[in-house]
Amino acid sequence: MPSPCSPPRTWAEISLSGLRHNLRVVKARSGQNVMAVVKANAYGHGIEQVASAFAKEGVCYFGVAHVYEARQLAQLNQDVPIYLLSPTMPQERAEVIQAGWTACLSSFEEIEDFERIAQAKHKQATVHLALDTGMGRGGFLPQDLLKAFHQVETSAAFKLEGIGSHLPSADEDPVYTQAQFEQFDTLVESLPRRLQYIHLANSAGLLDYSSRTTNLVRPGLMLYGVSPLPQYQSLLHTTMRLKSVISLIRQVPAGHSISYGRSFTTQEDSQIATVGIGYGDGLPRALSGENLQIDYRGHMIPVIGRITMDQIMCLIPPHLTAQAGDHVEIFGTATSITEIAALSKTIPWEIFTGITPRVLRSYKDEQTLLQ
């Protein structure tokens, strides 16, 4: 006997055409090859569908954080190489070599271990050198680059394909970032040969800076419709709209408290809507008391009281008639994810990746969700 069907309480509408548009903007803006960063479940958008959309548009790499995500991508059988953006654990390296994934190397210990495993398997490990030009998270320091290059270049166990570094403040500190580009270019030019892929720019880097050596960019956030530099936001299309449904409408008297902690009390007889989304879905609890408003049929209605795990309460103005089953939008059209992040005192990256698995992803292929 089939299980009863229940409509979703909260869902994220994902625009595949918006994703494709943003990738085209990256290509046009940079004029370079593209590594599409799809880590963290494609920034919460769903790695399977997003990778499929990007593969059809043509990218030269998928960037993932670690081996678990590489396995997810490998199961999709997309004809796009997989790049591991983070260091690998020793027990993962044999799998990386066997699967043909590309590793970035940050230490001499990694070089020696990858070489040993590759030789034992009679295989080559495809690798890029990671260079630390200021991020401080991984990579060879500039003074160690030539030694690392020669050690990898002279070993038959490696296919040395590229070199990359990372920008820590391209959206905050243009003077430092420009100096970082200059340092990276100078170091790349010091190498005995030009490698196939040379990469430094993230989204902010490709939007506002240029390099004389790079031929590959690694966009993340802007693929998902958000520019880390506000002046370029109009180039991009929104890719996610977070929606929920009113589950209950109640009339409550003046002086009635709302939600945990009784931080809100009605000043008059009020129409209160209970909506089926909470911090268990990824709506930050930090938005409580921050004047958050959500879109109900083109009207902005305030969220009142504290955000709970599964539900929020909203004040419906007297001139509106709402009922259970009506849809609301948390962000996407009337309110951007950037605005939600600012109210939460965080960043859009955290909001996207914080949308939890219980939120249904619904994929649409219309022209755009928002232009």
Structure description:
- By secondary structure, the protein is of the alpha/beta class.
- It has two domains: 210 residues, Alpha-Beta Barrel (TIM Barrel), CATH 3.20.20.10; 125 residues, Lyase, Ornithine Decarboxylase, Chain A, domain 1.
- It has eleven helices and 18 strands.
- Strands 1, 10, 13, 14, 15, 16, 17 and 18 form an eight-stranded mixed beta sheet that branches. The chain has an eight-stranded parallel beta sheet with strand order 8-7-6-5-4-3-2-9. It has a two-stranded antiparallel sheet with strand order 11-12.
- Strand 5, helix 6 and strand 6 form a beta-alpha-beta unit.
- It is elongated, with a radius of gyration of 24 Å.
- The mean pLDDT is 96.
Q: Which class best fits the helix and strand makeup? A: alpha/beta
- CATH fold descriptor of the largest domain: TIM Barrel
User: How many whole angstroms does the radius of gyration measure?
Assistant: 24 Å
Mean pLDDT: 96
The CATH architecture of the largest domain can be given as Alpha-Beta Barrel
Residues in helices, as a percent range = 25-40%
Overall shape: it is elongated
Number of domains: 2
User: What is the CATH C-level name of the largest domain?
Assistant: Alpha Beta
Low-confidence parts, pLDDT < 50 over ≥5 residues?
Answer: none
Q: What assembly state would you assign to the polypeptide chains in this entry? A: single chain
User: What profile does the largest beta sheet have?
Assistant: 8 strands, mixed
Give the amount of beta strand, in percent.
15-25%
Distance between the termini: 45 Å
Q: Please report the number of helical segments.
A: 11
Order of helices and strands: EHEHHEHEHEHEHEHEHEEEEEEEEEHHE
CATH superfamily of the largest domain, called what?
Alanine racemase
Give me the count of strands: 18
